[in-house]
Amino acid sequence: MQEPGLALRLPLSDWALCCVWQVSMRWTPNKVTMLRVVVGFAAVCLFGRGTWANLTAVGLTVTAIALDALDGHLARKKKMATPVGAQLDILGDRMIENVYFTYFAVVGMVSLWLPVLFFARGAATDFLRGLAMKAGHSPLGAGWGANTMLRTWWGQALVASRWSRGLYAAMKCLCFCYLGLELALTRGPVALVGELAADVHGMIRVGGDVLTWMTAAFCLVRGLPVLVEGWKYFVGSVGPARGIKRAAHNSIRDAKTAAWEAM
Length: 263
Description:
79% helix; Four Helix Bundle (Hemerythrin (Met), subunit A); mainly alpha; 9 helices
């Protein structure tokens, strides 16, 4: 007779703990990051498809931001933080930011320059982080010491501190949810609130503009330490390349001179 399985031989409480343990062992920070991107794209796909789809998208937006906090928590708790994981987390942030702001720019709720600004800032900082990683430094600038990209206290505070990252995530969540609720409640023929007075609608619009540009301003402020302190890696990579090019040019010139003298 076959022995009953482990789940049948364990008490209910122990079986529940076993299930929780198995789930926690199965999920990794990188998987949570990828799930966050999928949830964010699903939310944007639902926007503009009706009032209740918009409200569902707002709920998924909150879930995506919560998953952003969860992957970092898992990485710290399980000691699974890696340079590849850090880069994947940054890539997830960029994809979420750009897809949301691009959608809201396309439907005319934010300026087209807003996604352009986020894309340009992300491209510049990620380029400098890549040079820092190539030089053997941490891309997020976490911690102090020789391995960190950011050496100044203000750079650490603005980029790597928990309060800065948490505040930035909260501002993005509030911004995306505000715009999503505005879309669901006040825009289109199926808006829940219906027709609003021009001054009320104008106040709602001003609130959205203030919130989005405050988020953009904080995004630029957080990128400033990476741009300032990462510039030395760009200069350091350009200098040797110029030296190699100059040496090659001198070698070619010397070879031509020797050939003319031989003639």
